[in-house]
Model the fold of this input.
Amino acid sequence: MVPRNRVTLPHILQAAATIVDTDGVDALTMSSLAQKLGIRSPSLYNHSEGLPDIRRRLAVSGLEQLRDALMRSTVGRSRDEAIREMAKSYLNFVRTRPGLYEITILAPTDLDDELQKVSQEIVDLVTQVLKAYQVGSADEIHIARTLRSLLHGFASLEQRGGFGIPIDLDESFTHMVDTFLMGLHKRYLAKNQ
Amino acid sequence: MVPRNRVTLPHILQAAATIVDTDGVDALTMSSLAQKLGIRSPSLYNHSEGLPDIRRRLAVSGLEQLRDALMRSTVGRSRDEAIREMAKSYLNFVRTRPGLYEITILAPTDLDDELQKVSQEIVDLVTQVLKAYQVGSADEIHIARTLRSLLHGFASLEQRGGFGIPIDLDESFTHMVDTFLMGLHKRYLAKNQ
DNA sequence: TATACAAACTAATAATATTAGTTTATTATT
DNA sequence: AATAATAAACTAATATTATTAGTTTGTATA
Done:
Protein backbone atom coordinates (compact mmCIF):
# COMPACT_ATOMS: atom_id res chain seq x y z
CA MET A 1 0.00 0.00 0.00
CA VAL A 2 0.91 3.66 0.34
CA PRO A 3 1.18 4.57 -3.35
CA ARG A 4 2.73 7.54 -5.03
CA ASN A 5 0.71 10.44 -3.65
CA ARG A 6 -0.25 9.31 -0.16
CA VAL A 7 -3.50 11.16 0.39
CA THR A 8 -5.67 9.77 3.20
CA LEU A 9 -9.16 10.53 4.43
CA PRO A 10 -7.89 12.67 7.33
CA HIS A 11 -5.90 14.74 4.83
CA ILE A 12 -8.99 15.17 2.74
CA LEU A 13 -11.10 16.27 5.68
CA GLN A 14 -8.45 18.69 6.86
CA ALA A 15 -8.16 20.26 3.42
CA ALA A 16 -11.94 20.42 3.16
CA ALA A 17 -12.17 22.12 6.56
CA THR A 18 -9.62 24.70 5.48
CA ILE A 19 -11.58 25.44 2.33
CA VAL A 20 -14.95 25.87 4.04
CA ASP A 21 -13.49 28.01 6.82
CA THR A 22 -11.57 30.19 4.42
CA ASP A 23 -13.83 30.53 1.40
CA GLY A 24 -17.22 29.26 2.57
CA VAL A 25 -19.16 26.05 2.23
CA ASP A 26 -20.00 26.65 -1.43
CA ALA A 27 -16.31 26.80 -2.29
CA LEU A 28 -15.93 23.16 -1.36
CA THR A 29 -16.05 21.31 -4.69
CA MET A 30 -14.39 18.12 -5.82
CA SER A 31 -12.16 20.29 -8.02
CA SER A 32 -11.08 22.75 -5.34
CA LEU A 33 -10.49 19.93 -2.89
CA ALA A 34 -8.44 17.87 -5.32
CA GLN A 35 -6.43 20.91 -6.30
CA LYS A 36 -5.62 21.70 -2.69
CA LEU A 37 -4.44 18.11 -2.22
CA GLY A 38 -2.41 18.04 -5.42
CA ILE A 39 -4.41 15.25 -7.03
CA ARG A 40 -7.12 14.99 -9.72
CA SER A 41 -10.73 15.03 -8.60
CA PRO A 42 -11.62 11.45 -9.64
CA SER A 43 -8.93 10.21 -7.24
CA LEU A 44 -11.08 11.42 -4.38
CA TYR A 45 -13.49 8.60 -5.14
CA ASN A 46 -10.87 6.14 -3.90
CA HIS A 47 -11.42 7.55 -0.41
CA SER A 48 -15.05 8.60 -0.34
CA GLU A 49 -18.31 8.15 -2.14
CA GLY A 50 -18.48 11.67 -3.51
CA LEU A 51 -19.12 15.22 -2.40
CA PRO A 52 -22.22 14.58 -0.24
CA ASP A 53 -20.25 11.89 1.58
CA ILE A 54 -17.32 14.24 2.20
CA ARG A 55 -19.67 16.95 3.46
CA ARG A 56 -21.29 14.44 5.80
CA ARG A 57 -17.95 13.26 7.16
CA LEU A 58 -16.87 16.86 7.61
CA ALA A 59 -20.06 17.56 9.54
CA VAL A 60 -19.38 14.62 11.85
CA SER A 61 -15.82 15.81 12.40
CA GLY A 62 -17.07 19.34 13.09
CA LEU A 63 -19.60 18.16 15.67
CA GLU A 64 -16.94 16.05 17.35
CA GLN A 65 -14.66 19.06 17.61
CA LEU A 66 -17.51 21.18 18.93
CA ARG A 67 -18.36 18.50 21.49
CA ASP A 68 -14.75 18.34 22.62
CA ALA A 69 -14.50 22.11 22.94
CA LEU A 70 -17.71 22.24 24.99
CA MET A 71 -16.51 19.42 27.17
CA ARG A 72 -13.20 21.12 27.89
CA SER A 73 -15.00 24.33 28.80
CA THR A 74 -17.10 22.69 31.50
CA VAL A 75 -14.42 20.58 33.16
CA GLY A 76 -14.18 21.52 36.85
CA ARG A 77 -17.07 23.97 36.59
CA SER A 78 -20.72 23.85 37.56
CA ARG A 79 -23.95 25.79 37.38
CA ASP A 80 -23.84 29.34 36.05
CA GLU A 81 -20.09 29.28 35.58
CA ALA A 82 -20.29 26.07 33.55
CA ILE A 83 -23.08 27.45 31.40
CA ARG A 84 -21.34 30.76 30.82
CA GLU A 85 -18.13 29.07 29.82
CA MET A 86 -19.91 26.60 27.62
CA ALA A 87 -21.74 29.43 25.88
CA LYS A 88 -18.50 31.33 25.31
CA SER A 89 -16.88 28.20 23.98
CA TYR A 90 -19.77 27.57 21.58
CA LEU A 91 -19.62 31.08 20.17
CA ASN A 92 -15.86 30.95 19.94
CA PHE A 93 -16.07 27.74 17.96
CA VAL A 94 -18.48 29.22 15.46
CA ARG A 95 -16.37 32.35 15.12
CA THR A 96 -13.10 30.54 14.57
CA ARG A 97 -14.47 27.70 12.43
CA PRO A 98 -17.34 29.34 10.56
CA GLY A 99 -17.44 26.95 7.64
CA LEU A 100 -16.98 23.85 9.72
CA TYR A 101 -19.82 24.93 11.99
CA GLU A 102 -22.07 25.83 9.10
CA ILE A 103 -21.67 22.44 7.52
CA THR A 104 -22.70 20.73 10.76
CA ILE A 105 -25.99 22.58 10.45
CA LEU A 106 -26.49 21.95 6.74
CA ALA A 107 -26.26 18.18 7.03
CA PRO A 108 -29.56 16.39 7.65
CA THR A 109 -28.80 14.89 11.06
CA ASP A 110 -31.96 12.85 11.19
CA LEU A 111 -30.82 10.61 8.37
CA ASP A 112 -27.40 9.64 9.61
CA ASP A 113 -26.51 7.42 12.56
CA GLU A 114 -23.06 8.86 13.08
CA LEU A 115 -24.35 12.42 13.12
CA GLN A 116 -27.20 11.39 15.40
CA LYS A 117 -24.72 9.94 17.85
CA VAL A 118 -22.49 13.03 18.17
CA SER A 119 -25.52 15.32 18.32
CA GLN A 120 -26.86 13.26 21.18
CA GLU A 121 -23.53 13.46 22.98
CA ILE A 122 -23.73 17.25 22.88
CA VAL A 123 -27.28 17.16 24.21
CA ASP A 124 -26.13 14.83 26.98
CA LEU A 125 -23.31 17.17 27.91
CA VAL A 126 -25.74 20.08 28.27
CA THR A 127 -28.18 17.92 30.20
CA GLN A 128 -25.44 16.92 32.60
CA VAL A 129 -24.61 20.54 33.39
CA LEU A 130 -28.30 21.22 34.00
CA LYS A 131 -28.51 18.42 36.56
CA ALA A 132 -27.15 20.82 39.18
CA TYR A 133 -30.24 22.99 38.85
CA GLN A 134 -32.56 20.21 39.92
CA VAL A 135 -34.60 20.90 36.84
CA GLY A 136 -36.35 17.55 37.00
CA SER A 137 -36.22 14.94 34.29
CA ALA A 138 -39.46 16.06 32.63
CA ASP A 139 -38.20 19.59 31.99
CA GLU A 140 -34.55 18.76 31.42
CA ILE A 141 -35.00 18.21 27.72
CA HIS A 142 -36.85 21.51 27.35
CA ILE A 143 -34.13 23.50 29.04
CA ALA A 144 -31.41 21.74 27.09
CA ARG A 145 -33.22 22.54 23.87
CA THR A 146 -33.67 26.13 24.98
CA LEU A 147 -29.98 26.62 25.62
CA ARG A 148 -29.03 24.98 22.35
CA SER A 149 -31.55 27.13 20.46
CA LEU A 150 -30.15 30.23 22.08
CA LEU A 151 -26.55 29.40 21.26
CA HIS A 152 -27.16 28.16 17.76
CA GLY A 153 -29.54 30.98 16.99
CA PHE A 154 -27.16 33.68 18.10
CA ALA A 155 -24.12 32.16 16.46
CA SER A 156 -25.93 31.47 13.23
CA LEU A 157 -27.46 34.93 12.99
CA GLU A 158 -24.19 36.62 13.84
CA GLN A 159 -22.37 34.59 11.21
CA ARG A 160 -24.74 35.81 8.49
CA GLY A 161 -24.87 39.40 9.58
CA GLY A 162 -28.50 38.78 10.55
CA PHE A 163 -28.21 41.25 13.40
CA GLY A 164 -27.57 44.19 11.14
CA ILE A 165 -24.83 46.43 12.47
CA PRO A 166 -22.34 44.20 14.29
CA ILE A 167 -22.19 46.51 17.27
CA ASP A 168 -22.00 45.28 20.84
CA LEU A 169 -22.27 41.66 19.78
CA ASP A 170 -20.26 40.36 22.71
CA GLU A 171 -22.32 42.45 25.06
CA SER A 172 -25.54 41.14 23.54
CA PHE A 173 -24.30 37.61 23.93
CA THR A 174 -23.42 38.00 27.60
CA HIS A 175 -26.72 39.75 28.22
CA MET A 176 -28.56 36.92 26.49
CA VAL A 177 -26.91 34.21 28.56
CA ASP A 178 -27.63 36.19 31.71
CA THR A 179 -31.29 36.51 30.78
CA PHE A 180 -31.46 32.78 30.23
CA LEU A 181 -29.83 32.12 33.60
CA MET A 182 -32.31 34.44 35.29
CA GLY A 183 -35.19 32.53 33.75
CA LEU A 184 -33.60 29.31 34.90
CA HIS A 185 -33.20 30.63 38.44
CA LYS A 186 -36.69 31.97 38.65
CA ARG A 187 -38.11 28.73 37.39
CA TYR A 188 -36.08 26.22 39.39
CA LEU A 189 -34.11 27.93 42.10
CA ALA A 190 -36.54 30.60 43.24
CA LYS A 191 -36.21 29.57 46.87
CA ASN A 192 -32.43 29.38 46.77
CA GLN A 193 -32.09 32.88 45.43
CA MET B 1 -45.83 43.58 -24.54
CA VAL B 2 -47.26 40.41 -23.07
CA PRO B 3 -45.72 37.94 -25.51
CA ARG B 4 -46.50 34.30 -26.10
CA ASN B 5 -45.77 32.73 -22.71
CA ARG B 6 -46.54 35.48 -20.24
CA VAL B 7 -44.19 34.63 -17.38
CA THR B 8 -43.54 37.45 -14.93
CA LEU B 9 -41.24 37.90 -11.98
CA PRO B 10 -44.00 37.19 -9.45
CA HIS B 11 -44.76 33.93 -11.27
CA ILE B 12 -41.10 33.02 -11.09
CA LEU B 13 -40.86 33.74 -7.39
CA GLN B 14 -44.03 31.81 -6.68
CA ALA B 15 -42.78 28.79 -8.60
CA ALA B 16 -39.41 29.08 -6.88
CA ALA B 17 -41.09 29.20 -3.48
CA THR B 18 -43.08 26.09 -4.28
CA ILE B 19 -39.93 24.25 -5.29
CA VAL B 20 -37.92 25.15 -2.20
CA ASP B 21 -40.81 24.39 0.14
CA THR B 22 -41.56 21.07 -1.53
CA ASP B 23 -38.17 19.70 -2.48
CA GLY B 24 -35.67 21.82 -0.57
CA VAL B 25 -33.44 24.75 -1.41
CA ASP B 26 -30.97 22.63 -3.39
CA ALA B 27 -33.76 21.57 -5.74
CA LEU B 28 -34.08 25.13 -6.98
CA THR B 29 -32.11 25.21 -10.22
CA MET B 30 -32.61 27.22 -13.38
CA SER B 31 -33.69 23.98 -15.05
CA SER B 32 -36.25 22.94 -12.45
CA LEU B 33 -37.61 26.45 -12.26
CA ALA B 34 -37.93 26.84 -16.03
CA GLN B 35 -39.55 23.43 -16.28
CA LYS B 36 -42.13 24.32 -13.64
CA LEU B 37 -42.94 27.49 -15.57
CA GLY B 38 -43.09 25.76 -18.95
CA ILE B 39 -40.24 27.75 -20.47
CA ARG B 40 -36.57 27.11 -21.25
CA SER B 41 -34.00 28.12 -18.66
CA PRO B 42 -32.30 30.90 -20.69
CA SER B 43 -35.65 32.70 -20.81
CA LEU B 44 -35.35 33.28 -17.08
CA TYR B 45 -32.58 35.74 -17.81
CA ASN B 46 -35.13 38.07 -19.34
CA HIS B 47 -36.54 38.55 -15.84
CA SER B 48 -33.58 38.18 -13.54
CA GLU B 49 -29.82 38.20 -13.47
CA GLY B 50 -29.42 34.52 -12.74
CA LEU B 51 -29.85 32.04 -9.95
CA PRO B 52 -28.17 34.04 -7.16
CA ASP B 53 -30.44 36.95 -8.05
CA ILE B 54 -33.54 34.77 -7.90
CA ARG B 55 -32.47 33.33 -4.56
CA ARG B 56 -31.91 36.83 -3.24
CA ARG B 57 -35.31 38.03 -4.40
CA LEU B 58 -36.90 34.94 -2.90
CA ALA B 59 -35.18 35.69 0.40
CA VAL B 60 -36.53 39.24 0.37
CA SER B 61 -40.01 37.95 -0.39
CA GLY B 62 -39.72 35.38 2.39
CA LEU B 63 -38.65 37.97 4.94
CA GLU B 64 -41.52 40.24 3.89
CA GLN B 65 -43.99 37.43 4.40
CA LEU B 66 -42.45 36.59 7.75
CA ARG B 67 -42.60 40.23 8.78
CA ASP B 68 -46.27 40.41 7.79
CA ALA B 69 -47.12 37.24 9.67
CA LEU B 70 -45.37 38.51 12.79
CA MET B 71 -47.10 41.84 12.48
CA ARG B 72 -50.54 40.25 12.22
CA SER B 73 -49.83 38.11 15.27
CA THR B 74 -49.12 41.11 17.49
CA VAL B 75 -51.95 43.37 16.42
CA GLY B 76 -54.07 44.24 19.44
CA ARG B 77 -51.81 42.37 21.82
CA SER B 78 -49.13 43.43 24.25
CA ARG B 79 -46.49 42.10 26.61
CA ASP B 80 -46.41 38.36 27.25
CA GLU B 81 -49.40 37.68 25.06
CA ALA B 82 -47.83 39.54 22.15
CA ILE B 83 -44.53 37.72 22.57
CA ARG B 84 -46.19 34.31 22.87
CA GLU B 85 -48.26 34.89 19.75
CA MET B 86 -45.32 36.24 17.84
CA ALA B 87 -43.26 33.22 18.79
CA LYS B 88 -46.01 30.85 17.69
CA SER B 89 -46.36 32.73 14.45
CA TYR B 90 -42.61 32.55 13.80
CA LEU B 91 -42.50 28.81 14.36
CA ASN B 92 -45.60 28.30 12.29
CA PHE B 93 -44.05 30.21 9.42
CA VAL B 94 -40.93 28.06 9.46
CA ARG B 95 -42.98 24.89 9.66
CA THR B 96 -45.30 25.77 6.80
CA ARG B 97 -42.70 27.43 4.57
CA PRO B 98 -39.52 25.51 5.38
CA GLY B 99 -37.69 26.24 2.14
CA LEU B 100 -38.72 29.86 2.00
CA TYR B 101 -37.52 30.38 5.56
CA GLU B 102 -34.27 28.56 4.96
CA ILE B 103 -33.40 30.72 2.00
CA THR B 104 -33.90 33.88 4.07
CA ILE B 105 -31.14 32.56 6.32
CA LEU B 106 -28.81 31.45 3.55
CA ALA B 107 -28.67 34.84 1.89
CA PRO B 108 -25.89 37.16 3.09
CA THR B 109 -28.03 39.96 4.52
CA ASP B 110 -25.11 42.25 5.17
CA LEU B 111 -24.43 42.73 1.49
CA ASP B 112 -27.89 43.66 0.29
CA ASP B 113 -29.82 46.86 0.97
CA GLU B 114 -33.23 45.37 0.35
CA LEU B 115 -32.56 42.45 2.69
CA GLN B 116 -31.11 44.82 5.26
CA LYS B 117 -34.28 46.88 5.19
CA VAL B 118 -36.72 44.02 5.79
CA SER B 119 -34.47 42.51 8.43
CA GLN B 120 -34.44 45.81 10.23
CA GLU B 121 -38.22 46.04 10.04
CA ILE B 122 -38.48 42.71 11.83
CA VAL B 123 -36.06 43.88 14.49
CA ASP B 124 -38.09 47.06 14.88
CA LEU B 125 -41.28 45.07 15.31
CA VAL B 126 -39.75 43.02 18.11
CA THR B 127 -38.30 46.14 19.69
CA GLN B 128 -41.70 47.78 19.67
CA VAL B 129 -43.27 44.89 21.54
CA LEU B 130 -40.49 45.05 24.09
CA LYS B 131 -41.17 48.72 24.77
CA ALA B 132 -43.96 47.71 27.16
CA TYR B 133 -41.43 46.05 29.44
CA GLN B 134 -39.55 49.28 30.05
CA VAL B 135 -36.38 47.51 29.10
CA GLY B 136 -34.50 50.72 28.51
CA SER B 137 -32.95 51.73 25.22
CA ALA B 138 -29.52 50.38 26.10
CA ASP B 139 -30.74 46.85 26.70
CA GLU B 140 -33.50 46.83 24.10
CA ILE B 141 -31.24 45.63 21.33
CA HIS B 142 -29.90 42.83 23.51
CA ILE B 143 -33.34 41.52 24.36
CA ALA B 144 -34.49 41.77 20.77
CA ARG B 145 -31.45 39.78 19.67
CA THR B 146 -32.09 37.25 22.40
CA LEU B 147 -35.65 36.64 21.29
CA ARG B 148 -34.63 36.40 17.66
CA SER B 149 -31.83 33.96 18.52
CA LEU B 150 -34.25 31.85 20.48
CA LEU B 151 -36.83 31.70 17.73
CA HIS B 152 -34.43 31.22 14.88
CA GLY B 153 -32.38 28.71 16.82
CA PHE B 154 -35.33 26.56 17.73
CA ALA B 155 -36.95 26.71 14.31
CA SER B 156 -33.71 26.03 12.50
CA LEU B 157 -32.72 23.11 14.71
CA GLU B 158 -36.19 21.60 14.52
CA GLN B 159 -36.19 21.91 10.75
CA ARG B 160 -32.98 19.88 10.48
CA GLY B 161 -33.86 17.27 13.05
CA GLY B 162 -31.13 18.75 15.24
CA PHE B 163 -33.10 17.90 18.36
CA GLY B 164 -32.95 14.18 17.76
CA ILE B 165 -36.25 12.50 18.45
CA PRO B 166 -39.00 14.97 17.50
CA ILE B 167 -40.92 14.33 20.70
CA ASP B 168 -42.65 17.07 22.68
CA LEU B 169 -41.42 19.77 20.33
CA ASP B 170 -44.44 22.00 20.89
CA GLU B 171 -44.08 21.53 24.61
CA SER B 172 -40.38 22.40 24.44
CA PHE B 173 -41.17 25.51 22.47
CA THR B 174 -43.79 26.77 24.92
CA HIS B 175 -41.48 25.98 27.81
CA MET B 176 -38.68 27.87 26.10
CA VAL B 177 -40.75 30.99 25.54
CA ASP B 178 -41.93 30.84 29.15
CA THR B 179 -38.36 30.61 30.39
CA PHE B 180 -37.45 33.64 28.30
CA LEU B 181 -40.42 35.58 29.69
CA MET B 182 -39.40 34.67 33.23
CA GLY B 183 -35.92 35.98 32.60
CA LEU B 184 -37.43 39.14 31.17
CA HIS B 185 -39.67 39.61 34.18
CA LYS B 186 -36.94 38.99 36.68
CA ARG B 187 -34.67 41.41 34.93
CA TYR B 188 -37.06 44.25 34.23
CA LEU B 189 -40.32 43.77 36.05
CA ALA B 190 -39.13 42.25 39.32
CA LYS B 191 -41.09 44.75 41.36
CA ASN B 192 -44.28 44.38 39.36
CA GLN B 193 -44.39 40.62 39.84
C1' DT C 1 -50.85 48.09 -41.53
C1' DA C 2 -46.35 48.46 -40.05
C1' DT C 3 -42.92 48.84 -36.57
C1' DA C 4 -40.84 48.21 -32.10
C1' DC C 5 -39.66 45.37 -28.57
C1' DA C 6 -40.29 42.29 -24.74
C1' DA C 7 -39.71 37.83 -24.11
C1' DA C 8 -39.56 33.61 -25.91
C1' DC C 9 -36.34 30.49 -28.49
C1' DT C 10 -31.88 27.56 -30.14
C1' DA C 11 -27.08 26.90 -29.94
C1' DA C 12 -22.85 27.00 -27.70
C1' DT C 13 -19.50 27.31 -23.69
C1' DA C 14 -17.50 26.45 -19.31
C1' DA C 15 -17.79 24.25 -14.88
C1' DT C 16 -19.63 20.81 -12.09
C1' DA C 17 -19.90 15.66 -10.28
C1' DT C 18 -19.38 11.23 -11.45
C1' DT C 19 -18.22 6.60 -13.84
C1' DA C 20 -15.26 3.51 -16.46
C1' DG C 21 -11.18 1.84 -17.53
C1' DT C 22 -5.90 2.20 -17.23
C1' DT C 23 -1.43 2.84 -15.17
C1' DT C 24 1.78 2.86 -11.44
C1' DA C 25 4.15 2.42 -7.28
C1' DT C 26 4.67 0.07 -3.13
C1' DT C 27 4.11 -3.89 -0.19
C1' DA C 28 4.20 -8.57 0.67
C1' DT C 29 5.44 -13.11 -1.05
C1' DT C 30 8.06 -16.41 -3.32
C1' DA D 1 15.98 -10.36 -5.94
C1' DA D 2 12.05 -11.06 -8.66
C1' DT D 3 7.23 -11.08 -8.88
C1' DA D 4 2.38 -10.81 -7.87
C1' DA D 5 -1.45 -8.04 -5.60
C1' DT D 6 -3.44 -4.06 -4.91
C1' DA D 7 -4.42 0.58 -3.38
C1' DA D 8 -4.61 4.73 -5.31
C1' DA D 9 -3.24 7.52 -8.65
C1' DC D 10 -4.32 8.63 -13.63
C1' DT D 11 -6.95 9.87 -18.38
C1' DA D 12 -11.09 9.95 -20.91
C1' DA D 13 -15.84 10.40 -21.29
C1' DT D 14 -20.74 11.61 -19.84
C1' DA D 15 -24.46 14.12 -17.90
C1' DT D 16 -26.05 18.20 -15.62
C1' DT D 17 -25.39 22.73 -14.23
C1' DA D 18 -25.40 28.11 -15.15
C1' DT D 19 -24.74 31.34 -18.38
C1' DT D 20 -23.98 34.13 -22.87
C1' DA D 21 -24.88 35.17 -27.72
C1' DG D 22 -27.68 35.56 -31.24
C1' DT D 23 -32.39 34.63 -33.44
C1' DT D 24 -37.33 34.38 -33.77
C1' DT D 25 -41.98 35.63 -32.58
C1' DG D 26 -46.06 37.60 -31.08
C1' DT D 27 -48.48 41.49 -29.41
C1' DA D 28 -49.30 46.46 -28.61
C1' DT D 29 -48.93 50.84 -30.21
C1' DA D 30 -48.09 54.44 -33.70
Notes: The interface with chain B takes residues 105, 107-111, 116, 119-120, 123, 139, 141-143, 145-146, 148-154, 156-157, 160-164, 168, 171-172, 175-176, 178-187 of chain A (CB under 8 Å).
